[in-house]
Amino acid sequence: xxAHGQPMSLKTLRKATNNFCQTNFLGRGGFGxxxxxxxxxxxxxxxxxxxxxGEVDERSFNAEISMIKTVRHRNLVALLGYCMKKEExxxxxxxxxxxxxxxxLFYPCKRTYPLDWKQRVTxxxxxxxxxxxxxxxxxxxxxxxxxxxxxxxxxxxxxxxxSDFGLVKLVHTMRxxxxxxxxxxxxxxxxxxxxxxxxxxxDVYAFGVVLMEIITSKKALxxxxxxxxxxIVVLFKKSFETENQFKQFMDPVFCVDNEAYACARKVSELAxxxxxxxxxxxxxxxxxxxxxxxxxxxxxxxxxxxxxxxGLDYSFxxxxxxxxxxxxxxxxxxxxxxxxxANLTL
Length: 346
Ligand SMILES: Nc1ncnc2c1ncn2[C@@H]1O[C@H](COP(=O)(O)OP(=O)(O)OP(=O)(O)O)[C@@H](O)[C@H]1O
Ligand SMILES: [Mg+2]
Known about the structure:
By secondary structure, this protein is an alpha+beta fold. The protein has eleven helices and twelve strands. Magnesium ion (MG) is lined by residues 29, 150-151, 163-164. ATP binds at residue 47.
């Protein structure tokens, strides 16, 4: 199925999901319930909003959809279609067979085995590329605002794509009563939490938190943390200062050899940079691409350091026929849940 962002009928989507059958249930989030479906032989994920909407939001829903469907990148989950019929709002996405990064990091028994460190840094690069592309788009509409491991999906080859970009705005459009604040606790940049100011640096902060989760396999707000230091950013920065403490804090996959450990240190420096308290001290996403790109290329191109997995695409992205080197800036090419409108008192 090649079409993107096409209007689809409710009848088609009912048929595709076996009438939204429980056996097709994939998960539930802030927008609604996600079902596995089949459209003309292609497996898809159908997101069905659980709120009731009047007809007033139709125009704004359409306007947001037409923005979202223009966004196309190999590291972003594609919106294949949508449906708006009376109170129903459905979004159809490409299906990501390996689920969310959260499943792999925090619930490894759900999956066959934990991600190794090369897979983790490759996923980090994929996410950085997707986010860098979003930030390179014409206006500030594509600040994600809800980047987190459950919005990072993995395909057959464990390559990552960012999902739900535009969704926060869409939900606001559909529920105009809500305030501007949206996101997930643990990933909110301090300035955003305090004054609701949204800039690209809000996403950079969340990306830094995700990097810390990738390195430690601990959640941003992990129940195992001491009560007075409940946020990963605080603990991560503290443990980074002492090698022994840091080794204990990180996931053991990064302690397998010196190369993995050196890699973890570099990724950690990037994570700390991205989570700087002052947004002006955080880098742009293209910086993350430039740091992670050569690192990933080095890992996978070294035959002695582990075999390449057949079928995986380790090449750097091609866009409009231009092969981008790993060091070039990508800016030139084109069960914590989301809350929206919460009144935050911090
Ligand atoms: N494109 C997809 N392919 C495969 N599974 C998906 C896809 N999109 C979502 N899912 C599954 O559905 C679940 C719910 O997704 P959803 O985006 O609605 O919520 P979330 O991201 O977990 O939470 P929140 O709404 O708070 O961001 C995911 O955890 C994932 O397991
Ligand atoms: Mg999601």
